[in-house]
């Protein structure tokens, strides 16, 4: 399989990143982070999520974020919507791209969205139908695609089954989430191959958390399978509050550095991105998790 010549990076920092901060980050900082990332050349960004503030208080200011962020033409600002209530809130706030999120294991589905996998698919059905009617783009996510914090290893066929269910609902693309970062390249490839038997490869994207330091290797493995869409989080921010011990996504700077070196285009300015990684990390009071951001600090700041 030839490597893609261009990769679309979905920036997950403002959502997947900040949803897992122990303290609540101010709306002002969130909005400035989104604007700065777009200035770096990011064209696809997860802005916030319309989930219950009782479940994820860190995203409770979703309306204010949507009202205050700049909306640059040509940039996709996506928000998570687990149900119709979330969808209605997102639309009222002007969202034009949404994400629904399922899991490959029953235990994780229950912990994260308080329902079984089948129930979640039925909840998403009216959401995706409404989105199609309204001309809203829809991403689907499958969590715990190779391993679950409660059930251990997940069979590739199980992940492929849920991926197909999201595809059949009408999701425009599906992010394959290694939520707890336990995947290794060979496992990730087997999982993608199983999914690609049921869903066109161009509909699939990678979403790798870096808990075990495997996320960049897993991103490369997914690239080698032909996936040209990858989620990443500036400074490696984040994790899922309902996945014990999970750390952030692969750092966007690390992915951009790797892709630049492979002459694969992303349209993202690495120097500005490193500056943004340090800017948000300074606000959070710790250095970026990204090795590239740390290595390039003196050259970029
Ligand atoms: P529930 O308690 O079963 O919901 O939660 P419910 O329908 O029974 O409603 C209970 C209350 O929540 C009601 O309010 C509803 O109005 C309210 P009350 O009457 O008690 O005052 N409610 C809402 N409020 C705001 N927005 C909504 C909403 N829906 C109901 N959309 C629910 C079910 C799905 C809402 C809850 O479980 C939830 O919000 N879960 C979100 C968990 C989450 O955000 N996890 C992190 C994102 S997923 C992730 O990070 C993984 C990913 O990155 C991929 C990967 O890494 O694998 C995407
Ligand atoms: Mg995630």
Automatic annotation (TrEMBL):
Domain Pyruvate carboxyltransferase, chain residue ranges per copy: 7-274
EC number of this enzyme: 4.1.3.4
SUPFAM superfamilies in the record: Aldolase
Reactions catalysed, as given in the entry: (3S)-3-hydroxy-3-methylglutaryl-CoA = acetoacetate + acetyl-CoA
Highest taxon of source: Bacteria
Keywords, alphabetical: Lyase, Metal-binding
Record-level GO BP terms: ketone body biosynthetic process; L-leucine catabolic process
CDD domains: DRE_TIM_HMGL
Record GO terms (molecular function): hydroxymethylglutaryl-CoA lyase activity; metal ion binding
Pathway(s) of this molecule: Metabolic intermediate metabolism; (S)-3-hydroxy-3-methylglutaryl-CoA degradation; acetoacetate from (S)-3-hydroxy-3-methylglutaryl-CoA: step 1/1
InterPro entries for the chain: Aldolase_TIM (IPR013785), HMG_CoA_lyase_AS (IPR000138), HMGL (IPR043594), PYR_CT (IPR000891)
Annotated family: Belongs to the HMG-CoA lyase family.
PANTHER family: HYDROXYMETHYLGLUTARYL-COA LYASE
NCBIfam families tied to this protein: PRK05692.1 (NF004283)
UniProt-recorded name of the protein: hydroxymethylglutaryl-CoA lyase
């Amino acid at each position: 399989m030839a490597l893609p010549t261009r990769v679309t990076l979905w920036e997950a920092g403002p959502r997947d990143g900040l949803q897992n901060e122990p303290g609540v980050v101010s709306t002002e900082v969130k909005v400035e982070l989104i604007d700065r990332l777009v200035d770096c050349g990011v064209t696809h960004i997860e802005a916030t999520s319309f989930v219950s503030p009782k479940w994820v208080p860190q995203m409770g200011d979703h309306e204010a974020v949507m009202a205050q962020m700049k909306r640059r033409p040509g940039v996709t600002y996506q928000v998570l919507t687990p149900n119709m209530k979330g969808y209605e809130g997102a639309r009222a706030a002007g969202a034009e791209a949404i994400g629904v999120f399922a899991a490959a294991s029953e235990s994780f589905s229950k912990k994260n969205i308080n329902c079984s996998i089948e129930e979640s698919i039925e909840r998403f059905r009216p959401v995706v139908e409404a989105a199609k009617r309204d001309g809203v783009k829809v991403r689907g996510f499958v969590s715990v695609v190779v391993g679950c914090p409660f059930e251990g290893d997940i069979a590739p066929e199980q992940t492929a089954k849920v991926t197909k269910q999201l595809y059949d609902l009408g999701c425009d693309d599906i992010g394959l989430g290694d939520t707890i970062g336990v995947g290794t390249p060979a496992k990730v490839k087997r999982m993608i191959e199983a999914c690609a038997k049921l869903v066109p490869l161009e509909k699939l994207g990678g979403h790798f958390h870096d808990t075990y330091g495997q996320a960049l290797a897993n991103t490369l493995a997914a690239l080698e399978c032909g996936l040209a869409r990858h989620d990443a989080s500036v400074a490696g921010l984040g994790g899922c509050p309902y996945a014990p011990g999970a750390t952030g996504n692969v750092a966007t700077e690390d992915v951009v550095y790797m892709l630049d070196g492979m002459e694969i285009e992303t349209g993202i300015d690495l120097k500005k991105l490193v500056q943004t990684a340090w800017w948000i990390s300074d606000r959070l009071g710790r250095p970026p998790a990204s090795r590239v951001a740390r290595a390039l600090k003196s050259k970029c700041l």
